[in-house]
Automatic annotation (TrEMBL):
<dbReference type="GO" id="GO:0005886">
    <property type="term" value="C:plasma membrane"/>
</dbReference>
<keyword id="KW-0813">Transport</keyword>
<dbReference type="Pfam" id="PF00528">
    <property type="entry name" value="BPD_transp_1"/>
</dbReference>
<comment type="similarity">
    <text>Belongs to the binding-protein-dependent transport system permease family.</text>
</comment>
<feature type="transmembrane region" description="Helical">
    <location>
        <begin position="140"/>
        <end position="160"/>
    </location>
</feature>
<protein>
    <submittedName>
        <fullName>ABC transporter permease</fullName>
    </submittedName>
</protein>
<dbReference type="InterPro" id="IPR000515">
    <property type="entry name" value="MetI-like"/>
</dbReference>
<feature type="transmembrane region" description="Helical">
    <location>
        <begin position="12"/>
        <end position="34"/>
    </location>
</feature>
<feature type="transmembrane region" description="Helical">
    <location>
        <begin position="108"/>
        <end position="128"/>
    </location>
</feature>
<feature type="transmembrane region" description="Helical">
    <location>
        <begin position="68"/>
        <end position="96"/>
    </location>
</feature>
<keyword id="KW-1003">Cell membrane</keyword>
<keyword id="KW-0812">Transmembrane</keyword>
<feature type="domain" description="ABC transmembrane type-1">
    <location>
        <begin position="73"/>
        <end position="273"/>
    </location>
</feature>
<keyword id="KW-1133">Transmembrane helix</keyword>
<feature type="transmembrane region" description="Helical">
    <location>
        <begin position="254"/>
        <end position="273"/>
    </location>
</feature>
<feature type="transmembrane region" description="Helical">
    <location>
        <begin position="181"/>
        <end position="203"/>
    </location>
</feature>
<dbReference type="GO" id="GO:0055085">
    <property type="term" value="P:transmembrane transport"/>
</dbReference>
Length: 288
């Protein structure tokens, strides 16, 4: 009788284990999508599992009719796009001098950045700082305080260290200053790292929730995630009545539709940057 070698067992068990883990993560998402396209009777009866029952788009129609949803969606898009650009600019301009050996104080600054990565500011001092800067009830409070992530900074710096120093020296010999060197030489070569940072920053900003609750009181400035929270933890009957279809709309179906709407935009970004994202993360993980 032939015995199965341990290596063969691992080769068989790994795909099975990964498949099980993938199903554990994917099945709840499929259930949410199925409920968002199901009728109220089927949802209330608990008949919806992985496929829509009594297929309908009424839940999405009711949600998309709400001006508050579109306003929150616009706020989230504004925060994500503008905040990502600000974060990329600030991270790149700080990582570049920290990667240059001629900058004598780079180790001291790196230690300070590392401290912020390990120890986070408590909520009350952070709130007092935002208030003293006059950013309360402002979208700047959701973009500026976390504009530079320590982890992203170290990844960007590691990528800069992989760029041959001869390129920088050649640019300087041609009369280019530091900003011109950064803009014309370093950044064009940093597309994988920039794509990696763009995904990380955009996902963080899109999912911004707690800071909006702490620093934003004006409901007109609430991002989509805060609106999502209001629909999830409160009864959606008011939304159904506003849509004029109380009998055919389920509060759970409306909640699932809002969750899908809040998730799809940021999921659509990743496929376009996947190649650069993987390359950037690998480079950041193997460089010192």
């Amino acid at each position: 009788m032939t015995r199965i070698q341990p290596a063969h067992r691992i080769a068989v068990l790994n795909p099975v284990l990964l498949l099980i883990i993938s199903l554990i993560m994917i099945l709840p998402i499929i259930n949410i999508i199925a409920q968002s396209f199901s009728g109220a009777t089927a949802i209330n009866a608990g008949e919806v599992l992985l496929w829509p029952v009594e297929f309908t788009t009424s839940n999405y129609a009711a949600v998309l009719k709400q001006a508050a949803i579109w306003r929150a969606f616009g706020v989230s898009v504004q925060i994500t796009v503008l905040g990502t650009l600000i974060s990329l600019l600030m991270t790149a301009t700080l990582a570049y001098p920290l990667s240059r050996h001629e900058y004598r104080e780079r180790k001291f600054v790196l230690v300070l950045v590392l401290i912020t990565m390990i120890f986070h500011a408590p909520l009350i001092p952070n709130y007092l700082l935002i208030r003293s800067l006059g950013m309360l009830d402002s979208l700047w409070a959701l973009m500026i305080p976390g504009a530079i992530s320590a982890f992203n900074l170290f990844v960007m710096r590691s990528f800069y260290l992989s760029i041959p120093n001869e390129l920088v020296e050649s640019a300087r010999m041609d009369g280019a200053g530091e900003l011109r060197t950064l803009w014309s030489i370093i950044l064009p070569l940093s597309k994988p790292a920039m794509a990696t940072m763009a995904i990380i920053y955009s996902v963080t900003l899109w999912n911004n929730y707690s800071n909006a609750l702490y620093f934003i009181n004006n409901r007109a400035l609430f991002p989509l995630q805060v609106k999502l929270r209001e629909f999830v933890i409160t009864d959606s009957s008011d939304l159904a009545s506003t849509a004029g279809d109380v009998m055919n709309l389920s509060p759970d179906g409306l909640k699932m539709a809002v969750i899908v709407i809040a998730t799809i935009p940021i999921m659509l970004v990743y496929p376009f940057l996947q190649k650069h994202f993987i390359k950037g993360m690998l480079i950041g993980s193997i460089k010192s």
